Amino acid sequence: LAFAGLPLLILGVALLLQAVIALSGMGAVKILTWSSSPFDLTAALVHHTQLTPVTFRCMRCVSALDVDGGPARPSETQPSAWHAHPSVRKVVICLWGVVAACAAWAALVMYLWDKNPNVLVPDVLTPNSLTPDVLAPNSTTFKTCWQSNVISYSMPGVNFWGWILVFVNMAVVQGPLTFGLHCSELIVNVIRDERQWRCATGRKGLRTATNPVKPIFTHPICLVLFVAKPFLRKSFTSSFLYRHWMFGLSFIITNPSNNGKLAYLAVGMLTAQIWNLCIALFIFASFITFVALRRPRGPQPAAYGHVQTLANLVDEWSPVMWWGHKEDGIPYCHAGTSDHPLPDVKMDCVYAGSDAGSLASLSYYRGTCFTFFSKSF
């Protein structure tokens, strides 16, 4: 077991910069609510008159923002996140781009291996079996292994610039992977917010104040992302999807030490593990695409956490809300929210909303803030 000082120093500097950025943002912006819930955020924005509800849009979903507002009949199904949010489409395309880049990476390693079949070291199939013969410190060309399609190259020296080159290599290869998987969290959050909003037509209603940690373990989609992102131990089988573990088997940094000093810095790439990573990313991207294309059922307009749409749909705020038919009218009916269960909307009626718009009461706003702080602390 050995520790290198420079990587720990860079890690500390990076954490310090993150703290400085966070504190700077907190000081520059007036924070209306600490809640991560889009419902608490919408109520706070409406209460502080920073968001104005648009009238006559009580049956308009988020995908109809660019359409002229007006009366509308309920729809049996709602648009998917893919059609409702342009950013969702960009994230899905970006994630599939990562899959294609991973496949191209594996193909490049195979091509370089095919061009340089000059090192014959048997049984190099795992990171633990990479020997100094494969990762030679004085190597100036790609070294390969005939059994597992491994290429390796060493840094010019064990010094500051050598570590910088290692970090650059890591950032170039792992950066798109990290970016794609972090962006997939945006889709998961959007789907989670929509599922919570659709609880307003259920028996128990929509509870706006929730524990921010609870959805990670109660929503299957959040649980899949939670398992996909953090580290898995090496005792697990490769059938588990994990970015850092599977990437760590594909992209190996070797830095053996001798008498307290690093002997050399070398990078190795294993084709078989890169293809395993590519297959795992393909499965993950397929799952995210399926979730993004899935259309919610029911007449309740889809919001996907969009605060302006929520402000248009919610006309009465309370800690527990139900959505449904509120008033009959000629020629238009009104649908909205209430603190008690409401009847289902009438599919053959036209809904235009109320002139009053959405009013976030002071008692609700204070109540949600108190509930959030009491649960957080």
What is the compact description of this entry?
This protein has 377 residues and is α+β, with helices and mostly antiparallel strands.
Q: What's the structural blueprint in terms of helices and strands?
A:
Blueprint: H1 5-28, H2 38-47, H3 81-84, H4 86-115, E1 143-145, E2 150-154, H5 160-197, E3 206-207, H6 214-218, H7 220-228, H8 243-250, E4 251-254, E5 257-258, E6 261-262, E7 266-270, H9 271-293, H10 307-313, E8 320-327, E9 334-338, H11 362-376
Antiparallel strand pairs: 1-2, 2-7, 3-8, 4-7, 5-6, 8-9
Strand content: 5-15%
Would you tell me the structural class of the helices and strands?
alpha+beta
Provide a count of the helices. 11
Number of E-type strands: 9
Element-by-element helix/strand order: HHHHEEHEHHHEEEEHHEEH
Give the overall shape: elongated
Sheet with the most strands?
4 strands, antiparallel
Radius of gyration: 27 Å
Q: How are the strands ordered across the major sheet?
A: 1-2-7-4
Unreliable runs: 119-147, 231-244, 356-377
Q: How far is the N terminus from the C terminus?
A: 38 Å
Rounded mean pLDDT is 77
